[in-house]
Structures are given as structure tokens and as C-alpha cells.
Write a structure and sequence with these properties.
single chain, mainly alpha, two-stranded parallel sheet, 24 helices
């Protein structure tokens, strides 16, 4: 590299360096052998002890299943229908495990994450649209984190909601502070926050004392009663699988140097599934606890009229006062601590998801602090405006709107994932079996259908209850349903479009990279862990000037 660059500071915008390094190091030289980074290397020896080396990404992913948006949906489900919708959480958690395992397998087998596969596979216009949608999903995910954190600060320190929204922007500084310690420390911190949330709600569960037999019945006996139960069940399902999580998980697994043999890849996929199952089980128990606490408190006989009215329209802010009145002041504080931990941990994972999305779709990276500042600002502006004008109740409704946006976005991440992992030209011998393909497409189709149903019914309800004139309602309905048709057509395009790029998994015995249809400079499949991925998390690396 040139001399002047040696003394230059790191730019705020940069392209991913994996491809250039591939060219300079030669097609047969693994990138990890050329760059001195603090990597997590998986031993070649076959042992269950290797599982500990894989633990970490699943906990970062599990945060999306216990973010403030899920808190609010769980609270409403318990308050309105007690334990009747617990079985939805069970089904959604099982489906989430299968889908997240596919995302992890895609990264492990191919050495590229989902956003990079989209960039390679789709035309430029399609790729650009998918990038915009993915970025909107990251921002929509950040809105509940901002509002949830603001609610938590209000519960703990009586800080106004709008001030709390501004304070959440300071989490950028916390993220910068954490980055200097590397990916392993970050994973441990997230795991600690997950278990802190679990501990808080287990304490709440112990004092609220829900009926155990009713809880078990709600878990294993499917039933939906009442007019609003169907909509709430759809919200629970839609909130369990997040589009940005699929990009995140497929990229996080690239921080490990996995043995590039058939057995090594299979072991990595198996251990990542076990690790994800453990992390998502903890998230599942937290969601069950939230619904059970809410159901037990709102079904109590000693509720006063005000608390019973709060139960009819429960949100994060009202839940604090409800728990305080029924279980005591300490209960409100415990809930606030759990909400704060959820919001802050979601901030970190959302930032990395946005980083991987930008790097993958555009081959462009921003420094993490700038990336965090950008996404957080886009989330803070609408949250601040709504909290100033409408107060806490309007801020709570904004969480529901953000959940609807995520439901809208999901097919544009889920369909490519299912297509890629079912393709022998991308996964080789590690492609999904026929059973797994049928199962995952059935799960994916079901989730997409209920999300489309949720969007259509929500739009119809919005029109029927709007203050617009009849003519305006008609035209709004026409344009709205025209948009729905375009939306469905776009999903069908992704479903029926045949994969055209071939990226077979690279093994150690392969003679060269990019053998499966790539031009020179595109073959980075064997370079695990990827330096351009790992450097987002591991800042202590040899300067680029030392690689000459």
C-alpha cells in the first residue's frame, strides 16, 4: 500500500477490504493467516468443548425477541386474554429457531452473509430497493428501543419521556466504549443483560403467582377467543421474527474461524443451532413470564377501577403504574430495570445489523459511531416529535406502528434466505433437506400470510375509523390496495425468480477461490473469519500499512 496512506487516519466511509486482500494475498491464502486480529478460532479437534467457542451470536440475536416492542405486545396479550395466547409464543419461538438456524448456516457454509448474497444475486435496482427496505427495518427496530429506554428512565428517575428520548442518543458513547474490548466481551455483556432481564421477570413471576395449571394449559392448548384475539395473536407472531435479525445472524457467525472441512462445517452448523436454541429458550421464558405476570395481575380480584381500565389498554408506561399499585413500588423498579436492559442491549445489536446491511448491499462501511448516530437520529426524531405532542400514550402507539413496519419488511429478508439455503448452487452438500425445505417454506409462507393479513386488516380498520370524507376514503382505498398488489407482486418476484449466481462452499482441499462462477476478486468464501466483518467488532488489529 502506498506510503501516504500509512499515516492517514481511518476514513469515516470505507469499502469492505476482504476482496482486495484476497487479490493481494493470492487465491490460496486464508485471510486470517495474513492479518493479526484477535479472532475466535475453533479448534480442529472434534469435541463438545468446541461449543463454548460458538456461544455468543445467539444471545445477540435473541435480544430482538425480548426488545421493548415484544414487551408491549406480551403485556397486552396477558392483560386482555390472560394465558390463552401462550401457545402462540411457543410456536413462534420454534419457528424462530428454525429460521435463525438457516441464517447461521448460510454464513457458515458460504462465508458470506445474507446481504452480500443479495448483492451478488439480484440486479442493481432490486438490490438497491432491498437495501432501502433493510435500512428502514433497522430504523423501525430502533424506535421501540428509544421509547422503551425513555419509559424506563421515566420509571426509575422521573425523567420526562421527551428528555429520555434525547438521552438515549448517548448510548452511542457506550457502544464506542464497549468496542475497544472486542467481540467476546461484547457477547458476554449482552448475555449478562439477557439473564438480567430474565431474573427481573422471574422475580415478578414469583410475586404475581400466576396459576401454574392455567399457564400450562395456555402453552399447549391452542385457542383464540374474542374479536381482538386474532389480531393480537398475529402481532405476537409478527414480532417474533425480525428482518434485521436474519442479516445480523448470518454475519455474526463469520467472526469464528471454522474448520473448512465437510465435517467442520456440519459441526459448526450443529453447534450454532444448539447455541441459538439455548439463547432463544431464555428469550422464550422471558416472554412467557411477561404474559403470565400481566395475566395474573390484570385478573386479580383486588383491582381498583383505574387499574382495571389500564389493563384494557395496557402499554409500557401504564404497566409500571399497574405493577406499582398491585405488587408494590419495588415491582415497578424491577420492571424498569428489565426494560432499560432490553432497550440498551437492542441498541447494540441494531447498530451492528445496520452496519452489516450497509456493508453487504453496498460494499460500503461507516465507522460504528457514525452508523449508530445516524440510525439513532432517524429513530429519535419521530419519537421525540410524538412524545412532545402526544405524550406517553402516543409514544406507546408508535411502537405498534414500528412493529407493523417490521411485519411489512419481513418477506424481503425471509424469502431470499429460504431461496439461498435451499439452493445446491450456493450451499452444496449442506443445502436444506427436503423435509427442512418443506418445513421452512411452510413456516415462512405462514408468517408472510399472517403479516399480509395483518397489514390489510389494519389498513381497512384505519379507513373505516378515519375522519375522511367518503370520496377520500374511496380514493385512499384504491391507492392503498394498489400498493398492496405491488407489495404482493414484489414478494412473488423474489419467490419465483431463479438463483443465477453459483457460490459453492469452499473446503480446505479446494485449489482456488471463486471456482463456482465468480470472477477474480469475488471469491472470499474460504476466508473465515472475514476481516471486514470481524473488524466491525474487533478494533485491535494490525494497521493496513503493515500488510505490505
Amino acid at each position: 500500500m502506498s506510503g501516504p496512506r500509512q499515516g492517514s487516519s481511518q476514513p469515516q466511509f470505507m469499502t469492505s477490504v476482504g476482496q482486495n486482500n484476497n487479490l493481494s494475498n493470492g487465491p490460496g491464502t486464508p485471510l486470517i493467516d495474513s492479518i493479526d486480529v484477535d479472532q475466535i478460532v475453533i479448534p480442529e479437534k472434534n469435541s463438545w468443548k468446541n461449543l463454548f467457542s460458538y456461544i455468543g451470536p445467539g444471545f445477540l440475536v435473541s435480544i430482538a425477541y425480548i426488545d421493548p416492542g415484544n414487551f408491549e405486545t406480551d403485556l397486552q396479550a396477558g392483560a386482555q386474554y390472560k394465558y390463552e395466547l401462550l401457545w402462540i409464543i411457543l410456536i413462534a419461538s420454534c419457528a424462530a429457531l428454525v429460521i435463525q438456524s438457516l441464517a447461521a448456516s448460510l454464513g457458515v457454509v458460504t462465508g458470506k452473509h445474507l446481504a452480500e448474497h443479495c448483492r451478488d444475486e439480484y440486479p442493481k435496482v432490486t438490490n438497491f430497493i432491498l437495501w432501502i427496505l433493510a435500512e428502514l427495518a433497522v430504523v423501525a427496530c430502533d424506535i421501540p428501543e428509544v421509547i422503551g429506554t425513555a419509559f424506563a428512565l421515566n420509571m426509575l428517575f422521573k425523567i420526562p419521556i421527551w428528555c429520555g428520548v434525547l438521552i438515549t442518543g448517548l448510548s452511542t458513547l457506550m457502544l464506542l466504549f464497549l468496542q475497544q474490548y472486542g467481540v467476546r466481551k461484547l457477547e458476554f455483556l449482552i448475555a449478562f443483560l439477557v439473564f438480567l432481564i430474565a431474573t427481573c421477570f422471574l422475580v415478578e413471576l414469583g410475586y404475581s403467582k400466576p396459576n401454574s395449571s392455567e399457564v400450562v394449559r395456555g402453552l399447549f392448548v391452542p385457542e383464540i377467543k374474542g374479536d381482538g384475539a386474532t389480531g393480537l395473536a398475529i402481532s405476537l407472531l409478527g414480532a417474533m421474527v425480525m428482518p434485521h435479525n436474519l442479516f445480523l445472524h448470518s454475519a455474526l457467525v463469520l467472526s469464528r474461524k471454522v474448520p473448512r472441512s465437510v465435517h467442520g462445517i456440519k459441526e459448526a452448523c450443529r453447534f450454532y443451532m444448539i447455541e441459538s436454541a439455548f439463547a432463544l429458550t431464555v428469550a422464550f421464558l422471558i416472554n412467557i413470564s411477561i404474559i403470565s405476570v400481566s395475566g395474573a395481575v390484570c385478573s386479580a380480584d383486588n383491582l381498583n377501577p383505574e387499574d382495571r381500565m389500564n389493563c384494557n389498554d395496557l402499554d409500557l408506561n401504564k404497566a409500571s403504574f399497574l405493577l406499582k399499585n398491585v405488587l408494590g413500588n419495588w415491582s415497578s423498579k424491577v420492571f424498569a430495570i428489565a426494560l432499560l436492559a432490553s432497550g440498551q442491549s437492542s441498541t447494540i445489536t441494531g447498530t451492528y445489523a445496520g452496519q452489516y446491511v450497509m456493508q453487504g448491499f453496498l460494499d460500503l462501511r461507516m465507522t460504528p459511531w457514525l452508523r449508530n448516530l445516524l440510525t439513532r437520529s432517524l429513530a429519535i426524531v419521530p419519537s421525540l416529535i410524538v412524545s412532545l405532542i402526544g405524550g406517553s400514550s402516543a409514544a406507546g402507539k408508535l411502537i405498534i406502528i414500528a412493529s407493523m413496519i417490521l411485519s411489512f419488511e419481513l418477506p424481503f429478508a425471509l424469502v431470499p434466505l429460504l431461496k439461498f439455503t435451499s439452493s445446491k448452487t450456493k450451499m452444496g452438500p449442506h443445502t436444506n433437506s427436503r423435509f427442512i425445505s418443506v418445513l421452512t417454506w411452510a413456516i415462512g409462507s405462514f408468517i408472510m400470510v399472517i403479516n399480509i393479513y395483518f397489514l390489510i386488516t389494519s389498513f381497512v380498520r384505519l379507513l373505516l375509523h378515519s375522519v375522511l370524507s367518503t370520496v377520500s376514503q374511496v380514493f385512499s382505498g384504491i391507492f392503498g390496495f394498489l400498493g398492496m398488489l405491488i407489495y404482493i407482486a414484489a414478494i412473488l418476484y423474489l419467490v419465483f425468480r431463479k438463483n443465477r449466481k453459483c457460490t459453492l462452499p469452499l473446503l480446505e482441499s479446494d485449489a482456488k477461490l471463486g471456482d463456482a462462477g465468480h470472477t477474480e476478486g469475488e471469491g472470499s468464501l474460504g476466508h473465515l473469519p472475514r476481516e471486514d466483518i470481524s473488524s466491525m467488532q474487533l478494533p485491535h488489529q494490525r494497521p493496513a500499512s503493515d500488510l505490505d
